[in-house]
């Protein structure tokens, strides 16, 4: 896989900031994120993504999950609303919704059916975790709709999406993300050391982050951050770039306080406000 572009480091002055909130704003002014995931044994991933979306500024967040996962959300995030996995999504979602697909979704038959329907919807979509694993099984033909999409694989998921290996992905990460863009379209975020962002026409690299962020739930937090920013009116590319950097900076702030070995995904969420304010 030949590298097509050289990565350019993302810098604070090059990131699109969230606009100042008007005094007359209400919760509907800042978008509605729907997080689809939460299989019976994976409600924690759903809750982390939902909480991160709220902490990033989304006005409303709704979690859509298996009924058995509802207790996770009730315990961790009473501000969010809940929907059981429905027979159909189309009639339940406003046109302006932003969907985070995959946190704790699982790969059972119900997850496959839900993702097939979601893929055909026109609402803005972020694909992560098991949504990517299901996409790898079906290939680009699954992406029938014309929705704007952001995809956030780690190297293992990227390898499955390209029929490759994680070692090959890591050996030439710019080439790997270029191949993902070419095969599936959309905006891609290849997670890992020096997280990359690309749509095939540009290639950005995040210079922040630390090994302590290699912990369960960290990717779910990133999904929530990006969709929370996207829901507030940023363009998809702007939300991807800013979300990656906010996630990494929050991780660095958490590691500075707690140490890398002790860092948990919830600690990243706790530092989102400081990262959004640009605190050193």
Which characteristics define this entry?
280 residues, 10 strands, alpha/beta, ten-stranded mixed beta sheet
Structure description:
With 280 residues, the protein is of the alpha/beta class. The chain is 41% helix and 14% strand. The chain has eleven helices and ten strands. It has helices at 43-55, 70-76, 109-119, 130-138, 155-162, 166-171, 173-184, 218-231, 236-258, 265-270, 272-276; strands at residues 8-9, 32-36, 60-65, 81-84, 98-101, 124-127, 149-151, 187-190, 196-198, 203-205. Helix 8 crosses helix 9. The radius of gyration is 17 Å and the shape is globular. The model has no long low-confidence stretch (mean pLDDT 95).
Question: What is the overall number of helices?
Answer: 11
Overall strand count: 10
Based on the structure given, which CATH architecture is correct? 3-Layer(aba) Sandwich
Task: Tell me about the largest β-sheet.
Answer: 10 strands, mixed
Strand content: 5-15%
CATH superfamily: Ribokinase
Helix content: 40-55%
Q: What is the global morphology?
A: globular
Q: Provide the domain count.
A: 1
Weakly predicted, low-confidence segments: none
What is the C-alpha radius of gyration, as a whole number of Å?
17 Å
Mean pLDDT: 95
Task: Please state how the strands of the largest beta sheet are arranged side by side.
Answer: 1-10-9-8-7-6-5-2-3-4
CATH topology call? UDP-N-acetylmuramoyl-L-alanine:D-glutamate ligase
Secondary-structure element series: EEHEHEEHEHEHHHEEEHHHH
